[in-house]
User: Fold this.
Amino acid sequence: MKAVASVIMNRVNVPVGEYSRISQGGNIRNILFQEGQFDCARETIRNQYNPQNIYNMNPTNEHYNIADWALAGNRLQEAGECLWYLNPFRPTCSQTFPVNGSGSFHTRIYNHCFYRPTPSYSNT
Assistant:
């Protein structure tokens, strides 16, 4: 969860590119609710109801602690400056993500692949 929180805060604070424009100077809500980005903020996935959306889940103290940790400026070192993560549902991670090549593979944490921006990201 800290790795995902790190990605969210990296998007909030990146000074260039798509996420800089979306965050409009650091608005976390804009990042979280950008269409298609985070499954927990979607009521449906592939036209199916998503029972694990934020409207149905009850946050625990762990969730609040991680949010406070990230808002205080902390980042998981393993996630570095990554702006993307995904579960590829296979044992390997592709070397680039998204398909436009603006991210390069950085690390795998459990089932998720994390990607940091390439120089081309600033043009997104």
